[in-house]
Amino acid sequence: MIEMAKPYPLRSPRKKNSECGLTLVELIVTAAILGILAAAAIPVARFEVQREKERELRSDLWTMRNAIDKYKDAADKGAFQTKVDSQGYPPDLDTLVKGVDVQGKKVRFLRKIPTDPMTGNAEWGMRSMQDDPDSDSYGGQSVFDVYSKSTGTALDGTKYSDW
Q1: What is the overall mean pLDDT for the chain?
Q2: Which of 49, 123, 128, 152 is the most exposed place for a label (fewest CB within 10 A)?
Q3: Model's pTM, two decimal places?
């Protein structure tokens, strides 16, 4: 009689229980590597949040200073009346939001006063033409410049209030 060959098994024989899964050492090494990577990522994420706030602060300062300049340009062209001692600058930041009447139309220079990302409120330091350039006190005549009231230091080592 002809003997038939046994078919190959479809599955490999099962491994013993001691050979299945990960060892405790492998798990500890994996957890340690993940911990090191996570610890390295936390400072990067924290600095990225601060960088984003600094970008927003620079943008807000540019927007307000641009609005002040547009108000001054319009006042210099005689589009509306200003106080004599203001030298054509707005009396306050609210005037940029509320607007002024120019030939029967209300012209606004800002939609709203932005929130200072460093302090979390819409209060800004202001300087008038009569104030010293480095002064922290506001004379109140007109708004020539704005700055952050934050006492913090930027990533580049400068004070936010000096921007």
Answers
A1: 85
A2: 49
A3: 0.71
